[in-house]
């Protein structure tokens, strides 16, 4: 399993980074306080907390992301950044440190492995996500970069409670 970083785009939506970070911190506090997987009131889709190791800093970084369950032990995440021309930091972190990815779903925290979806499998996954969260289908229209879709699969039980 690998996470492939495709080239950034030349056009895309402008994303106000300070505002996104502020909203993200608020979402994480709300998520952890509630103790259950949430459907975001503002977006209408399921949110999970993704913790990665910073590509530049090496520090643990947690971000709320849309997490779409795929079977019993897998979730799909789309590195949309609102249709921006560049990839979100959490995605680049996953690619740099693929052995240090954690997911929080409700009160449960566990290690996951990431795998980039490609071709028809990616297209079908994005279409499935867009059925649940229509805005995801629009993000690809805003940019000329291929928005990565990553399948996060629960790692073996050994070390799940770590860090």
Q: What distinguishing features does this structure have?
A:
163 residues; alpha+beta; 8-stranded antiparallel sheet; 4 helices; 27% strand; globular; disordered C terminus
Task: Give a written overview of the molecule.
This protein has 163 residues and is of the alpha+beta class. Helices cover 30% and strands 27% of the residues. The protein contains four helices and eight strands. The chain has helices at 17-34, 89-96, 119-132, 134-142; strands at 38-39, 46-53, 60-66, 68-69, 74-78, 101-105, 108-116, 149-154. Strands 1, 2, 3, 4, 5, 6, 7 and 8 form an eight-stranded antiparallel sheet that branches. Helix 3 (119-132) packs across helix 4 (134-142). It is globular. The two termini are 22 Å apart. Mean pLDDT is 85; it is low at 157-163.
List the helices and strands and how they pair.
Elements: H1 17-34, E1 38-39, E2 46-53, E3 60-66, E4 68-69, E5 74-78, H2 89-96, E6 101-105, E7 108-116, H3 119-132, H4 134-142, E8 149-154
Antiparallel strand pairs: 1-2, 2-3, 2-6, 4-5, 5-8, 6-7, 7-8
What is the percentage of strand-forming residues?
25-35%
Overall pLDDT level: 85
Residue stretches low in confidence (pLDDT < 50, at least 5 long) are 157-163
Structural class determined from secondary elements: alpha+beta
Instruction: Calculate the terminal CA-CA distance, rounded to whole Å.
Output: 22 Å
Question: Main β-sheet: number of strands, strand sense, barrel status?
Answer: 8 strands, antiparallel
Radius of gyration: 15 Å
Overall 3D geometry? globular
Q: Order of helices and strands, N to C? A: HEEEEEHEEHHE
In which range does the helix fraction lie? 25-40%
């Amino acid at each position: 399993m690998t996470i492939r970083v495709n080239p950034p785009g030349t056009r895309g939506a402008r994303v106000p980074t300070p505002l996104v970070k502020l909203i993200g911190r608020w979402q994480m506090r709300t998520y952890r306080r509630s103790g259950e997987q949430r459907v975001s009131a503002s977006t209408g889709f399921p949110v999970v907390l993704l913790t990665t190791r910073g590509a530049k800093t090496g520090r643990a970084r947690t971000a709320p992301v849309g997490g779409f369950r795929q079977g019993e032990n897998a979730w799909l995440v789309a590195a949309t950044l609102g249709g921006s021309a560049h990839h979100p930091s959490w995605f680049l972190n996953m690619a740099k440190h693929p052995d240090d990815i954690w997911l929080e779903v409700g009160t449960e925290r566990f290690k996951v492995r990431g795998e980039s979806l490609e071709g028809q499998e990616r297209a079908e996954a994005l279409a499935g996500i867009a059925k649940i969260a229509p805005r995801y289908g629009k993000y690809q229209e805003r940019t000329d970069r291929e928005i990565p879709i990553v399948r996060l699969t629960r790692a073996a039980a050994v070390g799940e409670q770590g860090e």
